[in-house]
Amino acid sequence: MKIKIWNTAIIFLLGIMFLSCNSKPRVIEGRSAAEEAEAISNTGGQDALASTNSVADEHKVIGEGSSMDEAHTGIQEQEGLPGPAAGQIEPAPGAVKISQLYANKEKYSNKVVKVTGKCVKVNPSIMNRNWAHIQDGSGENIDLTVTTMEDIPLGAVVTLEGTIALDKDFGAGYRYDVIMEGAVLR
Predict the structure, then answer these.
(1) Fewer CB within 10 A of the end CB, N or C, for the chain?
(2) Which CATH number is 98-185 given?
(3) Domain extent listing, the chain
(4) What is the value of pTM for the model shown?
(5) Which residues neighbour 125 within 8 Å (Cβ) at sequence distance 6 or greater?
(6) Angle CA 176–149–99, to nearest 5
């Protein structure tokens, strides 16, 4: 009998949690504080308080055709380091310059390639990998995005070897014409 009561209580609590998680608060715009207080008392707090349009504008629904800028409105961009000057980075033996990689990207598609460059930006632990941005001073300081399990310090000059992928789309506006995946330090 005790088990049946506990099971009923658990099912009841799960039902309450399900209902509260799936209820959608409504955003009511342009009300005075008195009107907001009255709405809260009448609706049991289901209305989100918003007295201007700025709250609704900050939270855009991202769908097909949205740009990465729209998806990240209000998010502060991480500051990166300046890229190296032309000729400042000496490539390791067998390494390809990043400008050559972009100029002949089809040639390197799905191939293991080695590059040497300065790490100008790092985003650690995203999608179970670290994302580094490498520049070697070739071209117009072209940025090569690299995914790796290695911990690459910001500002370090490193030689990485990984597989080149073209037109990689991770969704949410994260699309890369050229990306090096699964890179390891050499």
Answers:
(1) N
(2) 2.40.50.140
(3) 2-59, 98-185
(4) 0.57
(5) none
(6) 40
